[in-house]
Amino acid sequence: MLVRRGISYYKLSYAATCILQNPGCKFYATNKWVSSDPTFPTDGAILPGGGACVAALQTAVGREPDAIIGKPNQALLQTILSTHSLDPSRTCMVGDRLSTDIEFGRRGGLYTLLVMTGCTSYEEKAAIADEFQRPDFFVEDVNVLNLLAATST
């Protein structure tokens, strides 16, 4: 299940119908837990996130997803690393959500950079209890990366 801004009741209904009426139909989700991905960041509006949409579909079909394939799933990371011949010790995961982006990188042995212009508040950052959600670095805005890149060449 891929969540985009165009998610609708019709699309959720169609997904549920496909799963229920096709015995071999697999139910793959990017996020399982509403708590890890409850909202989708936008300017001035709150939209249901991947976890919230998966929860709605899971409730409609009465079963768990067959597999969770999005962040922080490590199978996804291993595929990315091997496909692009990346060295985890020289790779940095940049993201705005502690429970998906930062945990994804930390569990995979990557450096992690939290961007404060997205989902995570300063209060949440200060109260991190889970070591896998503690970023190595943080920046106020992703544009800082552009400045660093421009000055490093």
TrEMBL record:
Protein origin, superkingdom: Eukaryota
| A molecular function (GO) term | phosphatase activity
For this record, an example GO cellular component is: cytoplasm
Chain coiled-coil ranges = none
Q: Name one Pfam family in it.
A: Hydrolase_like
SUPFAM superfamilies associated with the record: HAD-like
What the entry lists under InterPro entries is as follows:
HAD-like_sf, HAD_sf
Q: What name appears for this protein in its UniProt entry?
A: Uncharacterized protein
